[in-house]
Write a structure and sequence with these properties.
By secondary structure, this protein is α+β, with helices and mostly antiparallel strands. It has one domain: (Glycosyl)asparaginase (Glutamine Phosphoribosylpyrophosphate, subunit 1, domain 1), CATH 3.60.20. A hairpin with a 2-residue loop joins strand 11 and strand 12. Helix 2 runs antiparallel to helix 3 and helix 8 packs across helix 9. The chain is globular. It binds aspartic acid (ASP). Aspartic acid (ASP) binds next to strand 1, strand 8 and helix 7.
Length: about 290
């Protein structure tokens, strides 16, 4: 089968001055994922590597550069899933540089699926991941954004400044995978968790059907179990683009804003969003496209 990868750098009102960095970042992530697929790597490796690259890029709300919570700290969530219905996830971590890496290790080395906070940190350390100072994830741009939110007392929903990075891929053996990572919404309440670590809501992969990954208002995404609902539409015969559009319509039933990226069982790419912008890049047949 022809391998393919699509990545996103978040569906939100990406400011004009951040557009170029977002485009560059998603393109690099899609190129990296594509290289993995081209060298016969698995879709799981491709989505993990692409998401790790975006976690390490301070442009995005994931890993370093994440939005800050109401107390000025960072809370990270991430998940990964393959088409054999294996999955791993973490929520509310702030001492690992690459939460998606930890999610994959949870999937592969434990009999559990989701770990949070201190327990997740202990597990990370037992897996040999470096535990960092949470301050290392904070960048000056986000400190300033946090000051503005604090001064205006703005609700994150009103500004719909939320974001996430994600990737969906299929490899030459027809195996699907999806991964997500986020710092959540800016100024979020401490302890709030969105859709990203919730399998079926933020992401879903099922060999023979396809895979999807979301971004946007997590509470709305969870209510309509957006990623699984989108993959179910693929199973009913909708193409990737149609399913992405139908997924966003479903999100609108609960007044949600966001976007979804999809690959269907024939390897076609799909995406749709109802936010002002969504950073997207995809690669198929060696051609990489990016758009915002
Ligand atoms: N879905 C993420 C959350 O609610 C944020 C986003 O993707 O915009 O935590």
């Amino acid at each position: 089968m022809e391998p393919a990868i699509i990545v996103h750098g978040g569906a939100w009102a990406i400011p004009d001055e951040e557009v170029e960095a977002h485009l560059r970042g998603v393109r690099r992530a899609a190129e990296l994922g594509w290289r993995v697929l081209k060298e016969e790597g698995s879709s799981l490796d491709a989505v993990e590597r692409a998401v790790m690259l975006m976690e390490d890029d301070p442009t995005f709300d994931a890993g370093v550069g994440s939005f800050l919570n109401r107390e000025g700290g960072v809370d990270l969530d991430a998940s990964i899933m393959d088409g054999e219905l294996r999955a791993g996830a973490v929520a509310s971590v702030n001492r690992v540089r690459n939460p998606v890496r930890l999610a994959r290790l949870i999937m592969e080395r434990t009999e559990h699926l989701l770990f949070v906070g201190e327990g997740a940190h202990k597990l990370a350390s037992s897996f040999g991941l470096e535990l960092i100072d949470p301050g290392e994830l904070v960048v000056e741009r986000e400190r300033r954004r946090w000051e503005e939110f604090k001064a205006k007392g703005m609700s994150p929903r009103k500004a719909f400044e939320k974001s996430t990075v994600g990737a969906v891929a299929v490899d030459s053996r027809g195996r699907f995978a999806a991964a997500l990572s986020t710092g959540g919404s800016p100024y979020r309440m401490v302890g709030r968790v969105g859709d990203v670590p919730i399998i079926g809501a933020g992401l879903y992969a099922d060999n023979g059907k396809g895979a999807a990954a979301c971004s946007g208002h997590g509470e709305s995404i969870m209510k309509v179990v957006l990623a699984k609902s989108t993959v179910d539409m693929l199973a009913l015969g909708l193409g990737a683009m149609e399913a992405a559009r139908a997924g966003v319509s479903l999100l609108e039933r609960v007044g949600g804003r966001g976007g979804v990226i999809v690959i269907d069982r024939s390897g076609e790419i799909g995406y749709h969003y109802n936010t002002p912008r969504m950073a997207i890049a995809y690669a198929r047949g060696g051609v990489v496209e990016s758009l915002i």
